[in-house]
């Protein structure tokens, strides 16, 4: 199966394949996080105040390291553009598995890269 969406939509799925199951360690701090998803203020990232900008960069790094994602605010993207982006994203994920394979990318640094892992041949688990 090429994608998680395809996996979920398959009619014969009885359980989650083992290569999609990440073993949990009770000592893992991410399991004990109770705070909200990190929020990054774009206006602080581009601030002319070096101290403010440095703190925002640190917060961004922490969010990427600790969470793997974040919410970006004050980015200036219009509601219309966000809607178009969401529609384009939905149309991509609605493509057939075969059509999506055209975007799988053979190289992590390809301009368009889509996949469940950075290097499926090396990674033991898929995301």
From TrEMBL:
The keyword Metal-binding applies. The keyword Translocase does not apply. GO terms for molecular function: dioxygenase activity; metal ion binding. Signal peptide: none annotated. Residues 37-106 form the Non-haem dioxygenase N-terminal domain. InterPro entries: DIOX_N, IPNS-like_sf. Keywords: Dioxygenase, Iron, Metal-binding, Oxidoreductase. It comes from the Eukaryota. This is Putative flavanone 3-dioxygenase. It comes from Lupinus albus (White lupine).
